[in-house]
Design a protein that fits this description.
Blueprint (H helix, E strand, L loop, with lengths): L3 E3 L5 E3 L2 E3 L10 H11 L21 H26 L7 H9 L1 H21 L4 E2 L3 E2 H25 L1
């Protein structure tokens, strides 16, 4: 038999045990949990099977961490190679980045780095989250590494061609 007593300020008492929940679900703070867990965490996988929508775990696999670091380095290399190609007579195809190259080179570097770093950081935090059906965010991170590597190879080819 289940006996429930509802008090005014005490919460709900079920079978002699007090339910002290205040209605605030700590699992809703994804960004803070990811940031805290990145530096101080221990959780390696989602706790529950149905937690596939927005899963933030503490432990970062070294392979995934490397996959997050590689696009940052390749972004900087891409910026340098882009400026080299432009100095040899080429032009930037992306109109958004072309605007920032025309404004200031430091702004171009900053915007390009900022967009890449924020995107990689979000993919790193939500690496266990399923996106587009069954594709996990960490697999998108691996794909970004491959695409950036192909871009760098193409830019080196262009420099040899110019």
């Amino acid at each position: 038999m289940l006996i429930i007593y509802i008090g005014r300020d005490q919460g709900v008492e079920v079978c002699g045990f007090m339910d002290r929940r205040d209605g605030h679900d700590r699992r809703q703070r994804h960004i803070w949990a990811g940031f805290y867990g990145f530096f101080f965490g221990r959780r390696r996988s989602p706790r529950r099977f149905h937690d596939n929508c927005c899963v933030v775990v503490d432990y970062v696999n070294p392979l995934v961490l490397a996959a997050a670091f590689i696009p940052i380095v390749l972004c900087i290399l891409d910026s340098l190679l882009t400026l080299w190609i432009i100095s040899c007579g080429g032009h930037e195809i992306n109109p958004f980045m072309n605007f920032f190259i025309g404004e200031n080179v430091a702004t171009f570097f900053g915007i390009k780095y900022l967009f890449t770093a924020v995107g990689v950081f979000l993919l790193l935090i939500y690496r266990h989250t399923n996106l587009f059906g069954r594709l996990k965010a960490q697999h998108i991170l691996y794909g970004i590494c491959a695409v950036y590597f192909m871009l760098i190879c193409y830019e080196i080819y262009l420099i040899g061609y110019l």
